[in-house]
TrEMBL record:
Gene3D superfamilies per record: Cupredoxins - blue copper proteins
Protein name, entry field: Laccase
Domain Plastocyanin-like as annotated: residue spans: 49-162, 175-324, 433-566
Family (UniProt): Belongs to the multicopper oxidase family.
Database matches in CDD domains: CuRO_1_LCC_plant, CuRO_2_LCC_plant, CuRO_3_LCC_plant
Cofactor note: Binds 4 Cu cations per monomer.
GO biological process annotation, one example: lignin catabolic process
EC number, UniProt record: 1.10.3.2
Source organism: Salix dunnii
Length: 584
């Protein structure tokens, strides 16, 4: 009965019906809040074996996966569903799972960032994530939130509207998740471990991937290139997710226009474009109509590199295949797929032109009277060494790389998670004196004095009263290099009200803010050498991490956390922690 109901409602976890090789086993059930109050369950049948061998670029690696799948299973749910997800860790690393973009109202215990809202799930242990989808629909995703495990531990999380609620655009014939990733021809944890030791930047990836496959342009990859068959004339919905670690990407489909209809599970005013720019952590939904001559067309992605730093300059591809393409093309004898025109690697003008077109479908509620006006400098830094150029000081000029917000390089606690320490009243784990503005004002995007390049390491939180109206201006700095930093705020989505190049001017720039129909997002980047402003209401109590979604920067300390105090009564207060919450 339950299985039949699941099939009827098309709420499934894809690619899961067989004996599974895995390092983390996830049991998923859905409790759907439909009008008949019927409960819908889904469980995996599994055989538990350690890390799954995954072959890419001619070499096989024991890769950390969920249910033996790379990428992991796609979760398909509806707005209003309650998810119960039991994660059993059979890997050799501590791990947590994060449900990226889910608001987790009053429930930070299910959010997942390691040492922030929970202690990690240790090898051989388990933890059950329980949360409800509340007034959200669209494309999100899930991923590991411990060190660099999310390089391979990730998957799509698709939230359909409630039954009877249509999309605000014509129903597509089919929907395709397109997960853009990065692949290292070695253990990503070893890449991180080496960078941690030397203080230098981590090695860049060896390939980009589409749904786990590098594509035709890489060695030993052509036979496994992803292929998406389409019928002439049909319209499909591509749910594009940048699940890469450290690289913003341009994405396009040869000869086809893309109509953007949503970002970060928030609908947009539709607009048509030949490409999208998408940062790690972000999602973009686009409609594509198969209206070209029947043939094979590459969809492709390559780097948008906004900083003067090394990057992976390769290109990943998949193939859009018209089913009515000539037979010889289907056999691959004479047809080479048509390649799209992508913007150049450093084409900031195209990147900004794309993001500046995003708007909400209609007038939205934006906080107008601001209670907390925060100005956050975001950027890189260097830690000076007492023994420069030693094995542990291989960064620029014998230093170690760092990153910070308002000159505070965030340090995760070790004794307990921040949320557990706060709930338990444990002192000495964090302080609540995170600075609302930089400790020193300077020409943020100019020639910055070397005396300002070294941040202070600390575990500082910023406290917000429940219901506070918050504005944050993220200001890039030119320390080491200007760069687009995609900032992700857990537990919230926010209105992106303005952006610009250079230093933010609090006297003149707010007059240009869009307070009518700004886009809503959960991850937003600043223009390189510029700023971006967001607004939200602090209506979700708990401790919520905010960080750059370039994981090399996160590892260097480009993060902080908000402590949103309880409001009045149960519905404005953090719910009690689950009994199986992991302990440190």
């Amino acid at each position: 009965m339950a299985k039949k109901a699941m099939e009827t409602d098309n709420l499934t976890v894809k690619q899961s019906y067989y004996c599974l090789f895995l390092s983390i086993f996830v049991i998923i059930s859905f409790q759907a809040s439909f009008s008949d109050a019927e409960t819908h369950y889904h469980e995996f049948v599994v055989c538990v074996i350690q890390a799954k061998p995954v072959k890419r670029l001619c070499r096989t690696h024991n890769t950390i996966t969920v249910n033996g799948l790379f990428p992991g299973p796609t979760l398909e749910v509806r707005d209003g569903d309650t998810l119960v997800i039991k994660a059993i860790n059979n890997a050799r690393y501590n791990i947590t799972l994060h449900w990226h973009g889910i608001r987790q109202m009053r429930n930070p215990w299910a959010d997942g960032p390691d040492r922030v809202t929970q202690c990690p799930i240790q090898p051989g242990r388990s933890y059950t994530y329980r949360f409800t989808i509340e007034n959200q629909e669209g494309t999100l995703w899930w991923h590991a939130h411990s060190r660099w495990l999310r390089a391979t531990v990730y998957g799509a999380l698709i939230i359909y509207p409630k039954l009877g609620s249509p999309y605000p655009f014509s129903m597509p014939r089919r929907e395709i998740p397109v997960l853009l990733g990065e692949w290292w021809d070695r253990n990503p944890m070893d890449v991180l471990r080496l960078a941690d030791f030397t203080g230098a930047a981590p090695n860049v990836s060896d390939a980009y991937t589409i749904n786990g496959q590098p594509g035709d342009l890489y060695r030993c990859s052509k036979q496994e290139t992803m292929r998406f068959p389409v019928d002439s004339g049909e319209t499909i919905l591509l749910r594009v997710i940048n699940s890469g670690m450290n690289q913003e990407l341009f994405f396009a489909v040869a000869n086809h226009r893309l109509t953007v209809v949503a970002v970060d599970a928030a609908y947009t005013k539709p607009f048509t474009t030949s490409f999208i720019m998408i940062a790690p952590g972000q999602t973009t939904d686009v409609l594509l109509t198969a209206d070209q001559t029947p043939a094979h067309y590459y969809m492709a992605a390559h780097a948008y590199n906004s900083a003067n730093v090394p990057f992976d300059n390769t290109t990943t591809t998949a193939i859009l295949e018209y089913k009515s393409a000539p037979c010889n093309a289907k056999k691959g004898k004479s047809s080479i797929p048509i390649f799209p025109q992508l913007p150049g690697f450093n084409d900031t003008n195209s990147a900004i032109a794309f993001t500046s077109r995003l708007r909400s479908p209609s007038k939205v509620k934006v906080p107008l009277q601001i209670d907390e006006n925060l100005f956050f400098t975001v950027g890189l830094g260097l830690i000076n060494c007492t023994n420069p150029n030693s094995p542990r000081c291989q960064g620029p000029n014998g230093t170690r790389f760092a990153a910070s917000i308002n000159n505070v390089s965030f340090v995760l606690p070790t004794r307990n998670s921040l949320m557990q320490a706060y709930y338990q009243g444990q002192p000495g784990v964090f302080t609540t004196d995170f600075p609302p503005v930089p400790p020193v004002q300077f020409d943020y995007t100019g020639n910055v004095s070397r005396g300002l390049w070294q941040p202070v390491k600390a575990t500082k939180l910023y406290k917000l009263k429940f219901g506070a109206k918050v504005q944050i201006v993220y200001q890039d700095t030119s320390i080491i290099s200007v760069e687009d930093h995609p900032m992700h705020l857990h537990g919230y989505h926010f209105a992106v009200v303005g952006s610009g190049f250079g230093n933010f001017n609090p006297q003149t720039d707010p007059a240009k803010f869009n307070l009518i129909d700004p886009p809503y997002r959960n991850t937003i980047g600043n223009p390189p050498g510029g700023w971006v402003a967001i607004r939200f209401e602090a209506d979700n109590p708990g401790i919520w991490m905010m960080h750059c979604h370039l994981d090399s920067h996160l590892n260097w300390g480009l993060s902080m956390a908000f402590l949103v105090e309880n409001g009045v009564g149960k519905l404005q207060s953090v719910q009690p922690p689950p009994l199986d919450l992991p302990q440190c």
